[in-house]
User: What shape does this take?
Amino acid sequence: MFQALHETVEFIKRKTNNFQPEIGIVLGTGLGGLVNDIQIEYQIMYSNIPNFPISTLEFHSGKLIFGTLEGKNVIAMQGRLHYYEGYSMQQITFPIRTMKVLGITHLFVSNAAGSLNPDFKKGELMVISDHINLQPESPLRGSNDADMGPRFPDMSQPYKRDLITAALKLAADHNITCHHGVYIAVTGPNLETKAEYNYLRVIGGDAVGMSTVPEVIVANHMSIPVFAISVLTDEGFPEVLEPVSLEEIIETAKAAEPNMTKILSLLISKL
Ligand code: HPA
Assistant: This one.
């Protein structure tokens, strides 16, 4: 992997005139709008970047964006990669490793997720304070490159506590309903049955989604502080479960996106 990473980083540096990002941002399904707030300097399609997996979902535009947000140099992934698309865990997390080698010191992640907590309603936000990984594999399986991180990385605080506290305060100051809780990662792409939503709640989840955890594990492996936030796009409450479509999930994500974007921008401005 080291060789591939080196090749990718050299390519990006050449294409971006040696742009030095400080903050990495991964934008979730239906949540690409933060890009409108970035003063874009360069953008590269994933399909043009050596060793980058290509996002197969047509609603993902699949671009790396380089620019400034709140005066900070950022690199944003518009369109994330999911395990259910068929990529390996190493492929999904390759862009995070790339961002680290390019120089990021913080990673911000957004996603769309289903609520499991009856007090957390569709359209509201949830800062991720911890996670449970139910995906079948860790992105760290296989030989470990000690230059990147330890064989057995600590996960006692995978999401940086002072960023969580700051985000909740910013949300309260701006009258935005924003919870905090435990995100459970499943493989998907099917949504859950009633029995599965019930199980996910019982084992300690507040929200469920199909992403984020692989990226967060790899970021922790490389000692990058992480902040992650979910837009709750549907309610996985077993007693009253309604069928939900991808269109509705994307629509709800879009409606809640301005609030999420505001929190992310404010948080980044305070770094
Ligand atoms: N389950 C899993 N993933 C999701 C959901 C859900 O209910 N909503 C958005 N992503």
Observations:
- The first helix runs from residue 2 to 15.
- The mean pLDDT is 93.
